[in-house]
C-alpha cells in the first residue's frame, strides 16, 4: 500500500508540474493534424495551419 501511495503522489506531482508549466507558458493546449482523423479522411479540418500541411498539398 505504501508503494501505491508513493507512486500516486509522484504521478500527481508530475501532473501538477505540467499544469503549472502550461499555465506559465501562456500557450493553449491543442492537438496535431493527423492521427485518427487522417485514417478517416478528416485530418486538418480544424487545424489552424491546414494550408501549410504538406500532406494536404500532395492530395
Description:
The chain is mainly α and 59 residues long. The chain has one domain (2-58). It has 3 helices and no strands. It has helices at 2-25, 36-40, 54-58. The mean pLDDT is 75.
Radius of gyration: 18 Å
Number of helices: 3
Strand content: under 5%
Shape: elongated
Helix/strand structural class: mainly alpha
Largest sheet: none
What is the tally of beta strands? 0
Order of helices and strands: HHH
Low-confidence spans: none
Output the keywords.
single chain, 3 helices, mainly alpha, elongated, 59 residues, 58% helix
How would you summarize what this structure contains?
By secondary structure, the protein is mainly alpha-helical. It has helices spanning 2-25, 36-40, 54-58.
List the helices and strands and how they pair.
Blueprint: H1 2-25, H2 36-40, H3 54-58
